[in-house]
Amino acid sequence: MRRIFDEMSGEDGTIRPAYEALQSWLEKMPHEVLEQRRKEAEFIFRRIGITFAVYGEQNSQERLIPFDIVPRIITHDEWTGLAKGLEQRVKALNLYINDVYGKRDVLRAGIVPEELVFQNPAFRPEMNGQRVPHDLYVHIAGIDIVRTDPNTFYVLEDNARTPSGVSYMLENREIMLRLFPELFSLHKVAPVDKYADDLLATLRSLSPRGGSEPNVAILTPGIYNSAYYEHSFLADKLGVDLVEGRDLFVKDNVVFMRTTEGPKRVDVIYRRLDDDFLDPLAFRPDSVLGVPGLMSAYQAGNVTLTNAVGTGVADDKAVYSYMPDIIRFYLSEEPILPNVPTYRCREPEHLKYVLDHLPELVVKEVHGSGGYGMLVGPKADKAQIEVFRAKLKHDPANFIAQPTLALSTCPTLVEEGVAPRHVDLRPFILSGSDKVRIVPGGLTRVAMKEGSLVVNSSQGGGTKDTWVLDT
Amino acid sequence: MLSRTADNLYWLTRYVERADCLARILDVAQRLSYMPLTYGGSTNEWSSVVLTAGCADQFIEKHGPIEKATEENVVSFLALDPENPTSIRNCFEVARTNARSVRTALTSEMWDAINGAWIELRAFPDRGLSRDELTRFLAFVKESSLRFDGAMHRTMLRNDAFWFARTGTHVERADNTARILDVKYHVLLPEEERVGGPLDYFQWASILRSVSALTAFHWVYRDSVKPWLVADLLILNRAMPRSLASCYENLTGSLDDIADAYGRQGPAQRLARSIRARLSNQSIDDVFHTGLHEFISEFVSDNNKLGAEIAEQYLT
């Protein structure tokens, strides 16, 4: 097997220029000092209350995501290329969704098979022919990126529903500035705190009402949601109200919030609630988290929901495999960021290949997320492989498979010292009516276990501060 | 501001105040229980603690008749019992849940104070506490509420969020002071012929201590502790921060600030003003004349009514 690419020491052990200052700093720091700072960071995180809940786990209602104090560094040029590719990708996603709920050229041209749209559980017939402000659907996207060598960044996943993690991007930077101010004097790190302004500007640009200053609110499922901290954090940074379903009501197709001064009209709702729960009258009738009548107010064009309803039709792993063609179709451009080669098990030849090569592949559920329900072939034992073989044969369309990539590693503080661990990157892309905004960086997730490729926080993954260097 | 946010702020400060008050009541009971038995007479200090804390029903359900309350079961019930909805532990739990729901309306110092207290509280066991442990625990509770109050005063913007938080504190504080008076009213009655033995002195002093006013008493009256003066201090003296009159000074102030900011007066403001007027237009002799017990019962019910008016007008 090829050597794994380490973002600090490359493939041959030569320190890459962007990491030189960090590397010599790390060499001078005794392990105990680093360990001490790591504990301080953990203490601060707990004190601020940056916790998340893991579903299905008892007695650990509030857990910390491990924070790794060694930053990850991306050069200015690497970032410029990435940012272009991300903008292109999100533009195509928006055009695709607009088309799927509109004229459906993409289906007629045979680019994407119809059943991937109409049999998709995330497809919302309510959105057919529905116009949304500026034809934008995915206003806040999180695109997961992995790297395999100095020049290759792959898109691993598109998150077009309610991607989370941006609060970690911002808080990680705050903590680093507090703990290691000296490191920032050695590097020109592009700031990330502009994200809040960018997000607010994006949300305001989407208001359905011209003229007066739009009233923006963030809709949360409540304090028991695993990402509640992030919801309140964002409301705070934006200076907007954090509302729950019961704070809102709809009258004559207009959405109002209950305030101490009486009802106040709401124009833009950044909802962190899945489609299913938005409105018990339109979707799941048992939802107590949503707002009765919200969907009809939305359809009447009196309120903007971000992201739009029905964006899930563009971000499952089966549609993902068509993204390069989707980009070519709408933009007449070659994709700047490649996809990871993907076998669609719904296609018989692909399925056959996958079944014959299970020990070397990663198999994922089409609608899975959070690292649940996946098989990492090279790490699995025979029994696990056989279980997956049975699942695949039973319902092939529910799975895709990809070669096991040699994901890049970054130096990470672990018990034995500083050692390489696999990482990915989730940048956040904001699409407003005026322009696309991307804060340089994103959330780097790191698999804390040696050799592990699963970076999801629900599976014990941690996070790092991500530095994009200016020039 | 969102009605729910105002509601969370209001209950956040109410629960912090309640935890503080419970800690003071336990503190005083512990002190009284150190006294020689002969001074304790037939009164069972621990059952009166349960009555003052206003959780007699739940206590009886778990520990049986209130007359048989003991130091051990009262301390465990009021301090740390997770099953008692108004134990100090649960007050902090509810306060933090409210705080977590309104993170955006709190300053980081306030959140830090309440979240820090909640984290520290988890180090204490669910069971009863030894006397030493109890002393440490009560000091921790009082410090935590002081820290929270201090954070609120030093860091919060003076806007509706602050006024709703203040309103919660004072509605709760008035209720607590009134309940202490209600349970102990019989020892405050002026009986000309009674000399005031050591038992009574301890009782009066303990009432003052439970609202941390023993020193204040001497400064205000420059006299020995007399029951009607104790009543005067706790009911009518506006200089005394835990008196009913002072609570209503503050309540009318906060509610008027809210009304000014919103440009509209309502039933809550009118009711608060009329209660305040009643407190400032009477002398303590008038109070005793109409009956101390009746006076306090009526006050408790009016104070509850104000809570309901505030909820109706702003919090729902």
TrEMBL record, chain A:
<feature type="domain" description="Circularly permuted ATP-grasp type 2">
    <location>
        <begin position="71"/>
        <end position="447"/>
    </location>
</feature>
<dbReference type="Pfam" id="PF14403">
    <property type="entry name" value="CP_ATPgrasp_2"/>
</dbReference>
<dbReference type="InterPro" id="IPR051680">
    <property type="entry name" value="ATP-dep_Glu-Cys_Ligase-2"/>
</dbReference>
<protein>
    <submittedName>
        <fullName>Putative circularly permuted ATP-grasp superfamily protein</fullName>
    </submittedName>
</protein>
<dbReference type="InterPro" id="IPR025841">
    <property type="entry name" value="CP_ATPgrasp_2"/>
</dbReference>
<dbReference type="InterPro" id="IPR016450">
    <property type="entry name" value="UCP005522"/>
</dbReference>
Automatic annotation (TrEMBL), chain B:
<dbReference type="InterPro" id="IPR051680">
    <property type="entry name" value="ATP-dep_Glu-Cys_Ligase-2"/>
</dbReference>
<feature type="domain" description="DUF403">
    <location>
        <begin position="1"/>
        <end position="315"/>
    </location>
</feature>
<dbReference type="InterPro" id="IPR007296">
    <property type="entry name" value="DUF403"/>
</dbReference>
<protein>
    <submittedName>
        <fullName>Putative alpha-E superfamily protein</fullName>
    </submittedName>
</protein>
<dbReference type="Pfam" id="PF04168">
    <property type="entry name" value="Alpha-E"/>
</dbReference>
